[in-house]
Design brief:
Layout (H helix, E strand, L loop, with lengths): L6 E2 L1 E9 L4 H14 L4 E6 L8 E9 L10 E6 L5 H7 E10 L14 E5 L1 H8 L3 H19 L4 H11 L4 H21 L6 E2 L10 E4 H11 L4 E4 L7 H13 L11 E4 L3 H13 L4 E5 L1 H17 L3 E7 L16 H5 L9 E3 L4 H18 L2 E7 H4 L2 E4 L18 H5 L47 H18 L26 H11 L1
Parallel strand pairs: 1-8, 2-5, 5-6, 6-7, 10-11, 10-12, 12-13, 13-15, 14-15
Antiparallel strand pairs: 2-4, 3-4, 9-16
Length: 520
């Protein structure tokens, strides 16, 4: 007799689907239902870089202890894609479960002797209930979610409540989705006993955490941080950052009395244009950002160098993906560290922030806008696809309406009128950060020529060695000053004295949070 995996609130389920089949919303529904039952879940979309037709997977780790990293192995495979059947079946742990559509018989050699099979005739059930081809495709996904709810002993009422929230005021859609859910649920209850040893049991392990993707959190952080200008060119996996920024701006940045938009969002013709617009906006005093990925950074490098040397505030959100070149647009990597740290030629050094979850995407993007103004330089927020495009549990976002922006050293008209010495690239207090003026500050004082060439402390063109050395040493002092201004590392002390330590960042954090417990 085959042993079976027995687990409560601690298993991995993976959905193997076809991209463009409408499965994404059904799989997300499943994850949200687990959360509503008070059990932490960490889902990941694994999808191709085409629009429709290729394989896609949705892997959800259900873990009451709150571990978010990929565990390895699959306890239950929901195999809905014949193209990937063999590879999907091979992933299942011995004693695990294979859920599949049994409408068309499969050859015996397509199964494993050490895996339990859960055969549900999904296509047959769907075709009997629906005649419209598109409805058949979409509701087949809801039917398998209904079947899983019964197999995993989940509360059907949780799914129904989620549908009610999603389709509020759209009773026809609400009723049809609930019907599809119960078609799957009722089939399992009528034809199967308890074939699965996995359970989702109500708990209270989620607490006050929120379920959010990093790109949405980054966009909201830009709103919170005072950004009013975004210029971008579409590129996976960063495109949803400016899209979400527009959604939030339409909620928070529209004058209630006049309807006037207090923001500008431009989808530029390419990455060069987008970073050029952001540099121009920063020069004019606006808080501006762009969102891109590795190939976009490569194209933006010349403008990034200009912003660094001319000392113009710019915020760049890099949602990293697999490289080099076009690489793997829908896979995650932390492959852009060096190209961002030293973007542009010459002695260029940039400030990089590394969020570890959606909460830090929010806080770091807000902080980046402050730092860009304070340091008068490009600031990179180094997210990646794993954080940016996957929903994850994290601490609630804190919004303080009384928060004030750090604009740094901006000289006013009154100070200029009083005769205060203004040298655009002059270090007056040893931190390497000069004073700046914004366009139109004073009719006759405080103006300067912005250039990417060498200059003296008063922004006058110069090729003299001492002027060049002064400027480069000042930029290095500014970089050292940044170390005291950026978000500081989080130190987690070991339970006992040890000679070993680990430095980690970004999307490696979930694995590193779990590793000490595994190694203890």
């Amino acid at each position: 007799m085959i042993q079976r995996i027995e687990a409560i609130n601690d298993f991995v389920i993976k959905f193997a689907n076809v991209n463009g089949s409408g499965s994404a919303s059904a799989n997300e529904l499943f994850a949200k239902a687990v959360l509503r039952m008070g059990v932490p879940v960490s889902p990941r979309n694994i999808f191709p870089s085409n629009i429709q037709g290729l394989p896609t997977w949705y892997e959800a780790r259900v873990c009451e202890k709150g571990y978010h990293g990929r565990r390895g192995g699959v306890d239950m495979m929901v195999a809905m894609n014949p193209q990937t059947w063999d590879a999907d079946v091979a992933e299942i742990e011995p004693g695990g479960y294979l859920f599949y559509d049994s409408t068309r018989p499969m050859p015996p050699d397509k199964f494993r002797d050490d895996v339990h099979t859960i055969a549900v005739p999904l296509t047959e059930i769907t075709n009997a209930a629906y005649t419209d081809p598109r409805q058949r495709q979409l509701f087949k996904n809801i039917i398998y979610v209904g079947a899983l709810s019964a197999l995993l002993d989940m509360d059907a009422g949780v799914f129904e409540k989620l549908f009610a929230e999603q389709y509020k005021g759209k009773e026809r859609l609400l009723d049809s989705n609930i019907r599809a859910l119960h078609l799957g649920l009722d089939y399992v209850r009528q034809h199967m006993g308890k074939p699965v040893g996995l359970r989702v049991r109500k708990s209270n392990a989620v607490g006050d955490q929120i379920f959010m993707d990093g790109n949405s959190a980054a966009a909201l952080g830009c709103v919170y941080g005072g950004a009013t200008v975004a210029a971008w060119y579409p590129i996976t996996p960063s495109s949803s950052v400016p899209e979400a920024f527009q959604k939030y701006c339409e909620k928070f940045r529209v004058d209630e009395a006049t309807g006037q938009h207090k923001f500008a969002i431009v989808q530029a013709e390419d990455e060069l244009a987008s970073i050029g617009m952001v540099v121009g906006a920063g020069w004019n005093g606006a808080r501006a950002f762009t969102a891109t990925s590795g190939p976009g950074i490569s194209l933006m490098t010349e403008f990034i160098g200009l912003a660094y040397f001319a000392e113009i505030p710019v915020t760049i959100i890099n949602v990293q993906r697999g490289g080099p070149s076009t690489g793997m647009p829908t896979r995650t990597q932390q492959a852009d560290l060096f190209c961002c740290a030293y973007a542009s030629h010459g002695d260029t050094k940039h400030v990089l922030l590394f969020p570890q979850d959606p909460h830090e995407c929010f806080t770091h993007c807000a902080a980046a806008l402050d730092l860009a103004d304070r340091l008068q330089t490009p600031i990179f927020v180094m997210s990646d696809l794993d954080i940016g495009m996957n929903q994850r549990l994290c601490k609630p976002l804190e919004w303080d309406d009384s928060r004030s922006f750090d604009r740094g050293k901006v000289m006013t008209a009154a100070e200029l009128e009083a005769g205060k010495d203004f040298g655009r690239y002059k270090d007056v207090d040893g931190d390497g950060i000069p004073w700046r003026t914004l366009p139109g500050t004073h009719p006759s004082k405080g103006s300067f020529f912005t250039r990417g060439t060498t200059r003296d402390p008063y922004a006058r063109y110069s090729e003299k060695g001492p002027d060049y050395v002064y400027n480069m040493e000042r930029l290095l002092r500014k970089f050292r000053s940044a170390a005291d201004l950026v978000p500081q590392p989080i130190v987690r002390a070991a339970a006992q004295q040890t000679s070993w330590g680990v430095i980690y960042f970004g999307s490696t954090s979930p694995a590193m949070r779990e590793a000490p417990d595994k190694l203890a």
